[in-house]
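Retry 2 of 3 after timeout on previous attempt. Resubmitting structure tokens to design endpoint.
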């Protein structure tokens, strides 16, 4: 009973104090006290205010960091996509350029019928006696391909069809040691003839050039049409160096082919030129 009375007394005292403060505040009697209390409390309020602002700024920074990370991941994904798309565009541009060059070659050689094929295999291996340099293409007997047909690009002679399968063929490259091409110098003041033969592990050479023939570095070499194994006028390469000894019957020219055999992607097969029957398919390698 005493405890309840004490609580009631405290309640009435606090109520009286509150009422008194309200009366004093209404009459502006608490202004000095409020100023004093405000001065005492101001440092604490500033601390609480700054702490609250720091917490708010930290929370905002965390949200911004999370947003930036999401945006960064999205941008990385877009960059990866754009990089892939850019590579595809460059690849298509390169392929279109190669096709334009092949089309130009076809337009400059209207007398030939061509079939375009993709290079699908590449074989550069060492056999029992020499290196074999061949490429496989996706054209075969079903596309009208026959053994011996010349194979070219816009840069020049690649070689000839060596083996034919239903849907593919093997091309014996000009640089193979068993390859031989009747050729001549294009320069009108020379027109020297010879045979371009592949060399195992080296560059082709133009052999059987007479000693009195005028051969110079940089001369363009083309097919001569002799022997009817290849049509006349196909570019073979350029003379890189000349080997000449007075006591020998012939001089030789080291040939730099105009076709880059390690970069072949698309080739043309001349389908309306067939080697004359009875022509030798292989010659003994030089060197």
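Retry 2 succeeded. Sequence:
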């Amino acid at each position: 009973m005493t405890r309840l009375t004490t609580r009631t007394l405290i309640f009435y005292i606090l109520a009286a104090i509150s009422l008194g403060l309200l009366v004093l505040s209404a009459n502006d009697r608490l202004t000095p006290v409020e100023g004093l209390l405000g001065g005492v409390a101001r440092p604490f309020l500033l601390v609480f205010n700054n702490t609250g602002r720091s917490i708010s700024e930290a929370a905002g920074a965390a949200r911004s960091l999370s947003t930036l990370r999401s945006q960064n991941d999205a941008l990385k994904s877009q960059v990866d996509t754009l990089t892939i798309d850019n590579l595809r565009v460059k690849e298509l541009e390169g392929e279109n350029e190669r096709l334009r060059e092949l089309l130009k070659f076809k337009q400059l050689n209207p007398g030939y019928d061509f079939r375009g094929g993709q290079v699908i295999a590449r074989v550069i291996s060492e056999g029992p006696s020499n290196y074999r340099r061949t490429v496989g293409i996706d054209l075969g007997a079903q596309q009208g391909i026959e053994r011996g047909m010349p194979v070219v690009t816009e840069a020049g002679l690649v070689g000839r069809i060596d083996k034919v399968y239903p849907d593919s063929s093997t091309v014996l490259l000009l640089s193979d040691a068993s390859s031989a091409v009747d050729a001549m110098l294009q320069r009108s003041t020379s027109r020297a003839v010879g045979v371009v033969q592949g060399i195992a592990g080296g560059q082709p050479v133009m052999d059987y050039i007479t000693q009195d023939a005028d051969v110079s570095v940089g001369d363009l070499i083309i097919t001569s049409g002799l022997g009817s194994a290849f049509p006349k006028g196909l570019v073979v390469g350029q003379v890189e160096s000349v080997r000449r000894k007075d006591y020998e019957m012939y001089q030789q020219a080291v040939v730099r082919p105009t076709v880059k055999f390690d970069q072949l992607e698309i080739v043309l097969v001349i389908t309306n030129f067939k080697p004359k029957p009875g022509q030798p398919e292989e010659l003994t390698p030089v060197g």
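Attempt log closed. The CA atoms of residues 121 and 136 lie 4 Å apart.
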